[in-house]
Amino acid sequence: xxxxxxxxxxxxxxxxxxxxxxxxxxxxxxxxxxxxxxxxxxxxxxxxxxxxxxxxxxxxxxxxxxxxxxxxxxxxxxxxxxxxxxxxxxxxxxxxxxxxxxxxxxxxxxxxxxxxxxxxxxxxxxxxxxxxxxxxxxxxxxxxxxxxxxxxxxxxxxxxxxxxxxxxxxxxxxxxxxxxxxxxxxxxxxxxxxxxxxxxxxxxxxxxxxxxxxxxxxxxxxxxxxxxxxxxxxxxxxxxxxxxxxxxxxxxxxxxxxxxxxxxxxxxxxxxxxxxxxxxxxxxxxxxxxxxxxxxxxxxxxxxxxxxxxxxxxxxxxxxxxxxxxxxxxxxxxxxxxxxxxxxxxxxxxxxxxxxxxxxxxxxxxxxxxxxxxxxxxxxxxxxxx
Length: 386
Ligand SMILES: Cc1ncc(COP(=O)(O)O)c(C=O)c1O
Hints:
Layout: E1 7-8, H1 18-24, H2 34-51, E2 57-61, H3 64-75, E3 81-86, H4 89-100, E4 104-109, H5 118-127, E5 133-137, E6 139-140, E7 145-146, H6 149-159, E8 163-167, H7 179-182, E9 186-190, E10 201-206, H8 208-216, H9 226-233, H10 244-260, H11 262-282, E11 298-301, H12 308-319, E12 321-322, E13 324-325, E14 335-338, H13 345-361, H14 370-382
Parallel strand pairs: 1-12, 3-4, 3-5, 5-8, 8-9
Antiparallel strand pairs: 2-10, 6-7, 9-10, 11-14, 13-14
The chain binds pyridoxal-5'-phosphate (PLP).
The site of pyridoxal-5'-phosphate has 12 residues, from α3.
């Protein structure tokens, strides 16, 4: 039987707020009728602050990868040179999509657990000046690194006409991005992470500069032709039947974010990151990523004194606390805690306290209560003056 009391702290899917679940259970409507049109026209501008843009944010029915693929097929042609930052499983996925579509891919390989620096991107762009685009990941979910996409976009803008295309699947809704201000051309995302929805929706935010490229691009595409999504959206329509229940949910998600305030949403994620990292330090749990490079939505821990998989197993079986393991070569080496979306500081206290019990059982050495105390300290520090 499915346990309903699980504490889901994987970096996606994430818990869905009860009011969003209720919104999603509304009766079906016709997707070509007025109600759907009104809903689409209402949602479209409300998505813009999530991405920090005044440009269109298109909604595609598909998982996050469909948005990554949409970004590639709409902006490039076979043989085009592109630069892809590969610092984890999802950077690698972007590179694989580019290779599948026969692009000439220059990979910037970055050690897992570290962020790419602006100079590395600049060097690559100078070495491959004909590159049509730079693809990179904002929050690299496989490691918990947040790459400095705004600073990179600004530098790319100074020296090249290449588009800057970012995977924000595990950051949008949980981290602030000034897409327009920094000159990022496309940011893609998905519904099941900081956007507090079940899987099934993908988002593609597109700049004016990117539309010029997309509109001219003659590469054949059908389901993921962004030109059609844009044209249809002007009339509150989608090219194909949308995942209506998820759109009902999205309406409520945006209402929740608007009520909390976007700045407060982003700050809450920073706070949960700080609390989690402070607790890990106090518990002698080695963090994979430096403070500077750490993602505000996911934290990776690389234990030295016990087996990460054993910890995850106890967390799951005894407490219903669901944590993620490592991916690819990091499998078994790290465990990851998702703290994004419908997660609050109260939940951080909960998982830190549970971790302490498990660590005791595993014979890991630390001062009892040290993690909780450090999380409390970080909370008080982060909310001082409120
Ligand atoms: C950064 C990042 N990009 C892309 C994806 C792929 O998204 P999906 O599994 O929804 O296709 C994920 C999913 O974990 C992700 O975290």
